Amino acid sequence: MNRYSAFGLLRGALNGQKHWQPAWRDPEPKAHYDIVIIGGGGHGLATAYYLAKVHGLKNIAVLEKGWIGGGNTGRNTTIVRSNYRQKPLHDLFEFGLKLWHNLSDELNYNVMFSPRGAMFLGHSDADMVKLAERGDAMRCDGIDADLMTRDEVAKLEPLLDMSRSARFPIEGGLIQRRGGTARHDAVAWGYARGADSFGVDIIQKCEVTGFVRDGDAVVGVETTRGRIGAGRVGICVAGHSGHVAGLAGLKLPVESQTLQAMVTEGVKPMINSVIMSQSLHCYISQSDKGGIVFGGDPDNWPSYAQRGHPMVMEGAIAQGLALVPALSRLRMVRTWSGVTDMSFDGAPIIGETPVRNLYLNGGWCYGGFKATPASGWTYAHTLATGSPHALNAPFALERFMRGATIDETGTGPMPNSR
Amino acid sequence: MMLINCPHCGPRAQSEFVYERTVDSVAPAGASNDEAMQILFTRSNPRGVDDEIWRHTFGCRAWMVVTRHRVTNEISQVRAVGPEALP
Amino acid sequence: MTGPSRPNSGQDISFTFDGTRYSARAGDTLAAALLANGIGLVGRSFKYHRPRGIMTAGVEEPNALVTVGEGGRAEPNTRATDVFVYDGLAAQSQNRWPNLSLDFGAILGLAAPVFSAGFYYKTFFGSAKRWMFYEHFIRKAAGLGNAPRDADPDRFSQRAAFCDVLVVGAGPAGIAAAREAADAGKRVILVEQDDILGASLIRDPQELDSAWAKESADRIRASGGHILTRTTASGYWEHDLVTLTQRLAEPGQVPANGVAQRLWHVRAGQVILATGSIERPMAFPHNDRPGVMLSQAVRTYVRRFGVCPGQRVVIATNNDDAYLTAHALKEAGAQIVAILDARPAPAGQEHGFTTFNNAHPLATKGSRHCLKSVSGIVDGIPKSWDADLLAVSGGFTPVVHLHCQAGGTLEWNDAAQAFVPGQSRQNVKTIGGAASPAPVFSAAPVVPAKKSFVDFQNDVTLADVDLAWAEGYRSVEHLKRYTTLGMATDQGKTSNMGALARLAEKQGVAIPEAGLTTFRPPYTPVTMGLFAGTAAKDAGAHKRRLALFDVHAAKNPIWQPLGYWFRPRAYPMAGESLAEAAMREARSVRTAVGMTDVSTLAKFEISGPDAVALLETVCATSVGKLAVGRGRYTFMLREDGFVFDDGTVWRIDENRYLLTSSTGGADRMATHLSYVRNYLHPELRVSVVNVQEHLAGIAIAGPKAKSVLATLTGEEPPRHMSTVGAKIAGVAVLVLAASYSGERAFEIYVDARNAEPVWAECETAVVGTGGCLYGLEAMEFLRIEKGHLVVGGEIDGRMTPLDLALDKMLNTGGGFIGAAGLTRPALSEAGRRQLVGLEAVEGSIPEGSMLVTADGKSPEGHVTASAFRIMDGGSLALGQLADGFLRHGEELIATSPTRGQKARVRVVAPHFYDSAGERYRD
Q: Which BP terms from GO are recorded (chain B) (predicted)?
């Protein structure tokens, strides 16, 4: 692996950048791996990376049915934050946020993590109390959060509509200054390159079509590129969790829904932070290329279609324009959708399944991207040791039947009400 | 945006309807506590056809079961449920 | 440069470009007018700030992007080829400083050897802060135009439509299809993104002509069909829903009736796509210079606009079509210096032109503003020609976007070297050039990769494609994301096929095996304001209006949003703060009487022989033993056993009940009741009527409430938790003796249409007894002191009846929703949050603060609501605390680090006032 550096680029300027090696190999699958990870998204690749780096395991494969990073890793709004109210959630995401802050150096791959601040807006006194409660819960657990006055919000984002007569007037905000955005594709590619350098086999165009069983245990997978034996198998396929788990005869507490996002044509800098809202369901940031990245609620019905609903999109844009009227004359250039696995308490599932040697990392709903490093780290721990890391222990699959759900929004088991 | 053929009103835009839940999420009467929780907390969630409970909320407000393909969005059947559909 | 055939009819109109005034002819696009005025340099590219001119004559234009219009109407990144000039149009070039000609950003171009594909990923290491330092400059250099800062002065409208046949594209094929459908009696909508019909008919002499187009349009209209010009079918969604974006005013133009654009949702019986094709450029070094244009675009400027973009022209082609351009130019008086035809042998159109076969362009020379010469290779021998225009045709890419958005598949047409529509998933078919593009010569010439641009706007060259391949980014999606190919405002309309061909060549496979990226909506970029429509004003959230809104408004209260409602929070007297007003109001309730509007509470009338069965399914408390005229507190569980709402249930009559629940949960409760009644229990003989807005509600509370009510009704008021019908101000009302405040209290429900006289009479009586109106803030003080729960506060969707100490009220008969969920083991384990009261030992308790045993410890609970003792002062609160029932007497810290507030608190029972309920007794 070449080391990436400014020097390397300058050297390349003289040779037409011809000295760069492939970022990852394109290996043929071996007959057996100690650990097989199904799903070459950010989470699966991060898992492989930490299995190799932290746990010293080398005989690992990541199986990807298409091309790495092609699912939700490449279809999100790139927001990174850890500002959750519930302790198990903010502890997990904060662990991830700490990894984010050093990730480019760690991977020698610039993932362009930009901690420009993730801000929730409050639109009433009641909102502001809820934001304070969230911030206080974080601060007591050592996570940064600051309440903002109206004036501070207006100063950070001069294009917000601060008028008192607005339908949702802005009374203040809660900012996590260490939150921000990152370059989503780079996260998958950086982890892939890192994992590959440790000898992990990243096998693309390799779809898992079934599990090989020996009694109550999984001992391998059937794929479009043949049978691959495995000591342990980890599912890590986001919106397709239900489908892949179904191949092992499992039914999960997840429902797959479409989440849309969109981006405008590039313009010069106009949005400085990540703007979210306590009452409205849209989130706005500006990419390094200048596009305004825009997201909203999921389409609230089950779908694997990777196509959004025009009216959900129109609703999200209406809310965004209510917050930032200056977006009105920009043009939306592209909209896309991801398939999210909406869990039945809104929190992820990381841990063992009822099938021996088969593990699950899923149920990330619409919040998986920011968790990529933490998800990989804890899942790697779980796969390497056979038992969960303290951070993912609360996120066991059995919590639903036990009643130990982690319900950030308090809306209960129906994902469409979340 | 789909077109859903309401058994009472005829074809209407999806924006008039609200999806509630899948048929397989509803425990039958007489299910044990454990069965009821198993049913509440698991879904077949197929990458294919499933039976879904929708309501014509912004129309006649009636409930129906929509049999729909989750990838193609093809709707093969819409069945009325509720008091109106009792024999 | 103006050619001989430029029409001389009509008034000249004037426009400005970068502040300089020019004239145009009616019907010109901005691009045509700029060319007519001899302007070659129009924009700067995204990455290297390379000088760029006009390349196309359509929506696929990657280079000539300008900001059109001024103030809040300015539209950045507008394609000069897709805006028709109007008098006063003001266009500004973009992405340049200090000006278009002398752009310092172009220095980036010198560093191009370093700024290879993916260079960002390989450098700028160090802390996140360090990246943000570099990012600051990168962001400033990126982007194209500036977003307007002023409010948008125009409106955007939305409309829904239905038709039998929607035809997209009004070229000869589309017009013919629409005409045929109209003749067959179908309801037709024909859309065309241009401002006139005809497409290729306008450009090329054909058997069918403009007169035929006009006659067809008349026939379509006469049959009741609609023809929408300046309208783009931008998205194809489920079940043949197509979104159309219609420009009623040009970019930056003041709209005639205030509406700038219109968004259509068209549900079509059948969709016919006659979307034509887009000409492909050719890749060779310096193919991006102003003066290099697509061949059909040149022909369009000559024939349609009468503008000849060059006098000494080299044409490079791999197909027959470019010879039509040669003829058009010749007719316009331009000299065809040479035609470089990639095909090895003459194809028969070359008479009269200096034509070379097996010939390709290899480079261009010129200035920032124009082209001076073209060099190429003919049969392996280098040649050079002086020229001011190079017209290129690399073949044709069918516009299959909508077909693909509709879920259709593509097939490879080898003769045309293009993807054409294959299977359709929806009721759509593609006709004309989009289905059968013209054949081309397939062999790609070998050219140097450097500065051979594929994606012009994002400055992606063949060398970038090669580098991505070498570094392992081999899937077409990786290529796109690594190089940013096809991600510019043109979404790869002119670039994708060129890059795909290169990728396939690298892979050693045929193009169709190399794959294709997804065609995502919209086809062309769509103004955000258009998607939002009129909903942007109120964020798409309606406001619900109280029946007594005017009565309250006249008193100028402080309003508080509550769900979609707005309710008076307090009625301050002159000089009073919110807190002072609320405390005065609360004290009035404690000492005398107060009245408040409770109309927003959810209310359901449930009647029929099986009403109890329904109620005992929905409510977790028993209802069956309730006597006529009596009511009781109740709460409802989700299926997972958590409390999600609470309220009261009243037996009005033998088989008629009134159920109330929280304001915020009203819609959810309505759906829940409907689900239980219709889906779970269709067999029940019961009706559920949502009467939330039919009934206005007035609460009268306080020690004098009973005497006030007696005066109002002239009858003995009902006992606590009883109900009677009565009359106030001659209007029939329902009186419920229920209390949220802890005082003897009554809720008076009345037909919302007749609420005002009832309110007026109540107010007179209350005020006459020394009482006052109270708002939500006082109500909050009162209920906290009494220890009553609120949905969204103590009832937060994460608490069971056990956690809230409501378990003694559970229906021992079971059978209610949530009973099964409650049996789950973790719900009765130690450590769960439980409802507690909190008394300040020191300081005042911040609402929402965390409960910790000592500073620096992780929270064990939080304050759900806090208030002051209404009569004695002192801070108190309700909260959730781990194992709270067992911790009464313990001292904790309620801390709010975000507000710098803190209090020492003692855990107590959650009742601070009249815990025995003495005050309800008469």
A: tetrahydrofolate metabolic process
Please give the model's pTM, rounded to 2 decimal places.
Answer: 0.97
Q: Is the CB of A24 less than 8 angstroms away from the CB of C472?
A: yes
DSSP structural state of residue A397: T
Can you identify the CATH homologous superfamily of domain A25-78+184-254+345-417?
Answer: FAD/NAD(P)-binding domain (3.50.50.60)
A-C interface: how many C-beta pairs under 8 angstroms? 346
Q: Do A132 and C474 touch (CB under 8 A)?
A: no
Residue C114 has a pLDDT of 86
Q: Do A168 and C541 touch (CB under 8 A)?
A: yes
- Percent share of chain A, pLDDT over 70: 100
Name the residue facing C536 among A17, A204, A328 (closest C-beta): A328
Measured between beta carbons, the chain C residues lying within 8 angstroms of A68 are: 478
Nearest Cα of chain A lies from the Cα of C12 at a distance, in angstroms, of 29
Closest-CA residue of chain C to A286: C139
**Nearest CB to B82; choose among C240, C407, C682:** C682
Contact A4 C132 (CB under 8 A): no
CB C726 within 8 A of CB C735: yes
Q: ipTM, 2 decimals?
A: 0.98
User: What is the 8-class DSSP label of residue C680?
Assistant: I
* Residue boundaries of the structural domains of chain A: 25-78+184-254+345-417, 116-179+256-343
Mutate to test the interface with A, among B43, B44, B66 (most CBs of A within 10 A): B43
Mean pLDDT of A254-271: 96
- State how far residue B4 is from chain C, nearest Cα, in angstroms: 9
Peptide bond before residue C522 is cis, with ω within 30 degrees of 0? yes
| SS3 assignment, position A258 | strand
What chain C residue is nearest to A175 in terms of C-alpha separation?
C898
Other beta carbons less than 10 A from residue C575's beta carbon: 7
- Give one DSSP letter per residue of C411-450, joined into a string: EEETTTTEEEE---SSSEEE-GGGTSPPP---PPPP--ST
Domain ranges (residues) in chain B: 3-25+40-85
C241, C683, C820 member nearest B36 (Cβ) = C820
Q: Three-class SS of residue C751?
A: strand
> Over the stretch C797-841, which tens digit does the pLDDT of each residue have?
999 999 999 999 999 999 999 999 999 999 999 999 999 999 999
| Chains touching B, CB cut-off 8 Å, 3+ pairs | A, C
Homologous superfamily of B3-25+40-85: Folate-binding superfamily (3.30.2270.10)
Across the interface, whether the CB atoms of B42 and A251 are under 8 A apart is answered yes
Q: Which CATH class is domain A116-179+256-343?
A: alpha beta
C-alpha separations of C544 from A35, A78, A154, C4, C910 in Å: 57, 36, 29, 65, 34
3-class secondary-structure state, position A334: strand
Q: Does residue C189 carry a pLDDT above 60?
A: yes
Among B19, B20, B42, whose Cβ lies nearest the Cβ of A253? Answer: B42
| Domain coordinates in residue numbering, chain C | 1-141, 160-281+394-443, 292-302+310-392, 444-526, 582-600+694-797, 602-691+799-822, 830-921
| Residue that is written with structure tokens 């004239």 in the block | C23
**CATH numeric code, C1-141:** 3.10.20.440
C427-472 residue pLDDT tens: 999 999 999 999 999 887 889 999 999 999 999 999 999 999 999 9
- Which member of A105, A167, A288 has the closest CB to residue C135? A288
Q: CB–CB of C124 and A135 under 8 A?
A: no
**What's the CA gap between C246 and C371, in Å, rounded?**
37
CA distances from A36 to A30, A44, A242, C165 (A): 11, 10, 18, 51
Distance CA C784, CA C790 (A): 9
Q: CATH topology of C160-281+394-443 equal to that of C292-302+310-392?
A: yes
